Amino acid sequence: xxxxxxxxxxLRPFTGKQASVEFxxxxxxxxxxxxxxxxxxxxxxxxxxxxxxxxxxxxYVNDEDIRYLQKESTPIKDGxxxxxxxxxxxxxxxx
Amino acid sequence: MAILRxxxxxxxxxxxxxxxDYPNETCGALLGTDxxxxxxxxxxxxxxxxxxxxxxxxxxITPEDFRTAERAASEQGIELLGWYHSHxxxxxxxxxFDREHAWPWYSYVIVSVDTGKPQQMTSWLLxxxxxxxDFEEIVIRDSASAAK
Lengths: 95, 148
Description:
- The structure holds 2 protein chains of 2 kinds.
- Chain A has helices at 28-38, 43-46, and strands at 3-6, 20-23, 57-61, 64-65, 81-86, 88-90.
- Chain A is α+β, with helices and mostly antiparallel strands.
- Chain A has a 5-stranded mixed sheet with strand order 2-1-5-3-4, with helices on one face.
- Chain A starts with a strand and ends in a 5-residue tail after the last strand.
- The longest helix of chain B has 14 residues, at 8-21.
- A 7-stranded mixed beta barrel of chain B has the order 1-3-2-5-6-7-8.
- Helix content of chain B is 22%, strand content 43%.
- The A-B interface holds A 8-14, 41, 44-45, 55-56, 58, 65, 85-95 and B 25, 27, 51, 54, 57-63, 66-67, 79-80, 83, 85, 87-88, 90, 94-98, 101-106, 108, 128-130.
- Strand 6 (88-90) of chain A pairs antiparallel with strand 4 of chain B.
C-alpha cells in the first residue's frame, strides 16, 4: 500500500483515464514529482515554467490544503490520499 | 469540431445570469453528459464570483465551490462539463488571462453582456499544450426536443 493521488477529470486524459494512481513517496513533492515523471504531459498543467505549482491548482492531503501544512515538503505516509483540486478563474482583460 | 449542445432554456439561463450580475462577471458550472457525438449541458449551477477586488473583469471559483459543483453533478448522475462566465462590455472571446488560468478538457462558455444586455455566446476548449483555445460549436435546441 502506498500513497494514492486522485486525478481530477480534466487531467485524466493524461493519465490513461485513471481516476487515481499510487506511488511510494515520503513527501507531497515526491509524489507529485513521480506523477509528472510517469505522466509527463501533466507537468505543464500543474507547474509553471519556473517549477512552481500553478495558482489555480490546490493540493490536499487527506482534505488538508498543503498551503497550510508544509507545502510540497509536507510528509506523507502509506494510506494517505493526495487530491488535486482545481480552482477556476478567468475574465476579460483591460483594467 | 467539438460540439456543445444546450437547450434554449439553458442558453437563456446563462444569458439571464450574465444580465443579472452586470456590470460584474457572472460565473457557474455546466453539468451534463459527455458522449462521443458531443457534450450536452443539462443543468447550470450558478456560483458566487469570489473576486471581490475586481469582479467587473475577473471571476474566481474556489476549490470548495469546485467540489460543490462536482458533488451536484454526481448527485444528478451527470458530469461536471465545464464553466460559464460573462464578459461585461467585452466580446465573447477568451482573454489571455482566461487562457493562462484554464484547465484542459473543460468547456468554457463565455457570454458577452453589452450595457446590461446579453449578446453573443461562445464556447472554447483549451489546447492540450495550453498554447490557445479551440472553438467549440454551440448547438441550441428548443426545450421540447432537448434530451433529458
